[in-house]
Amino acid sequence: MDQTSSNKLLSVSLFCFIVLTVTGIHAAAFEIQNNCIYTVWAAANPGGGKELHQHQSWHINLTDAGSIWARTNCNFSADGTGNCESGDCDGVLNCASDSSPPVTLAEYSLNVSKNLDLFNLSLMNGFNIPMEFKGTSSMCTQVIKCAGDINGLCPNELRHPGGCNNPCTLFKNDQFCCNVDRRSCGATAYSKFFKNLCPNVYTYPMDDPASTLACPTGTGYKVVFCP
Ligand SMILES: *[C@@H]1O[C@H](CO)[C@@H](O)[C@H](O)[C@H]1NC(C)=O
Ligand SMILES: *[C@@H]1O[C@H](CO)[C@@H](O)[C@H](O)[C@H]1NC(C)=O
Ligand SMILES: *[C@@H]1O[C@H](CO)[C@@H](O)[C@H](O)[C@H]1NC(C)=O
Ligand SMILES: *[C@@H]1O[C@H](CO)[C@@H](O)[C@H](O)[C@H]1NC(C)=O
């Protein structure tokens, strides 16, 4: 390495050190486990992706904020391109973008304020497979689980290959998407369908704030597909 590139490397490392220190970015250890009887392709943005057979886990350290989900019925070639029936992220194994709906999403923000992490499960992009999201340390034992038979009972008009769409995705109207007056936006027959089967998750933008859980920063997390 010549002097110029080693100086560059030094200043880049220094810059990263300063950014990480000043903004208090914190990494948390996540275990993402597949308990489905079928293979899924786990996805995280940021984070990438990994094929998981039944009972396999993906251990990954994640920072800042992002989302985790499962892809189903994927075909990827050796170069990591392909497609999935649900949860596809622009046709690549290592996701660097959000999922196409419908997909069950685990969302987190680490150290969002006063050393607290926030996390939730969201059906605002629909549902593909059952999921559980929980803290793993003794400091935090809260669990969010969505294991209702949403695909089996999905209203016909919301059915989609690999899952059940959120009405906002499908109809894009103000009532379902809460575009106009967010404060007065309420539950609908569709949001109640999801909420009845999965009471602890977000089903529309102004859903019960109690669906977000908080854990002390430093907690580890576990996401389980088909809990
Ligand atoms: C969380 O962020 C604050 C700054 O907002 C920082 O002082 C603290 O060290 C961070 N905590 C961890 C565990 O990274
Ligand atoms: C996550 O970070 C911890 C602490 O730095 C490290 O020991 C561990 O090996 C990392 N895990 C992965 C999967 O990278
Ligand atoms: C993947 O390939 C299998 C076997 O050829 C096929 O049945 C399935 O429909 C394909 N999936 C997608 C999403 O194209
Ligand atoms: C769910 O959690 C993520 C990450 O903390 C957050 O950005 C999102 O707003 C939350 N969803 C709702 C509906 O509050």
Side by side, the strands of the main sheet go: 3-2-5-8-9-14
Low-confidence stretches: 1-22
What overall geometry do the principal axes of the alpha carbons give?
globular
**CATH H-tier superfamily:** Thaumatin
Strand fraction equals 25-35%
**Strand/helix succession:** HEEEEEEEEEEEHEEHHHEE
CATH topology descriptor:
Thaumatin
Structural class: alpha+beta
Report the oligomer. single chain
Q: Helical region count?
A: 5
What hetero molecules are bound to the protein chains? 2-acetamido-2-deoxy-beta-D-glucopyranose
Structure, explained:
The chain is α+β, with helices and mostly antiparallel strands and 227 residues long. The chain has a single domain (26-225), classed as Sandwich (Thaumatin), CATH 2.60.110. Helices cover 19% and strands 33% of the residues. It is built from 5 helices and 15 strands. The chain has helices at residues 3-23, 150-153, 167-171, 174-177, 189-197; strands at 27-34, 40-45, 48-52, 57-63, 65-71, 75-76, 82-83, 105-113, 116-122, 131-135, 143-146, 159-160, 163-164, 213-216, 221-225. A 6-stranded antiparallel beta sheet has the order 3-2-5-8-9-14, with no helix packed on it. A hairpin with a 2-residue loop joins strand 2 (40-45) and strand 3. The longest helix is centred in the first third of the chain and has 21 residues, at 3-23. The termini are far apart. The model is unreliable at 1-22 (pLDDT under 50). The site of one 2-acetamido-2-deoxy-beta-D-glucopyranose has 5 residues, from loops. Residues 65, 107-109, 118, 120, 122, 202, 212 line the site of one 2-acetamido-2-deoxy-beta-D-glucopyranose.
